[in-house]
Structure formats: C-alpha cells, structure tokens
Amino acid sequence: MIDIENAVYTKVYNALKAEFPSLTVTGDPVAAPSEFPCASIYEADNYSYEKTQDSGGNENHARVMYEVYVFSNKKSGHKTECKNIFKVADDVLLSLGFTRKSRTPVNDVGSGVYCLIGRYAAVVSTEKKLYRR
Prior knowledge:
133 residues; 26% helix
C-alpha cells in the first residue's frame, strides 16, 4: 500500500492553522464535533491502480480519496465561515495534484450546524508523486 496520508494531512493542517489559529483540525472522521469551527481531513480510500500492476502483482500506483468536512455552528455567517475554511483546504489539495470530485453542503437545521463536505481523488506512485488521472 502506498501511504501518503500523514504528508497530505500535515500540509492541509499547517495551512488551516496558519489562516485560522483557533480552528479545531482532526485527521479522523467526525460525525458531530465537540468544538467549532472544526475541520476533518482524512484518507477515505486507498486501493491498487490495477492498470500499472506488474506481472508479479506489485503495486506501482494507488488510487486515493480524501474527504474534508468543515463544520460551523455560528448563528449568523456559518455558511461563509465554512466556505472560507474549505477554500484553504481545497487550495492545498488541488496544488498537491488532487481533483475535487464533489463539494456538498449539509445544513442540519435542527442542530444549527452547517457542514461542507469535499471529496478529492488522485493516483499516487510508489515515489509519492500525484497524478490527476
């Protein structure tokens, strides 16, 4: 398995904390954060890219998918806060070579929590180089 999660997380974490020092950032999936605003960045999938496996079954590339969740519970401006935080994570992931596959808003009116969910994909080589396709 080609593992780049720590390197990806660290780059996104550093960018987020530089821009939003009070932001809670985690590398684990979060369903309901205890602190706001909150961002969760983690590798959601990692599997062999079969087109480049050699005859010995060695993995030369892997398809990876990362998920970004950004939460805000502000009474006013929650959508803007999420978008601003999300943009920083998005810029970093795109600059690394990921393709954004989706960005979905979720507004849980009952709890007062707004969330943006993003999914990013890339193919990564054993040399840890990322490819968009």
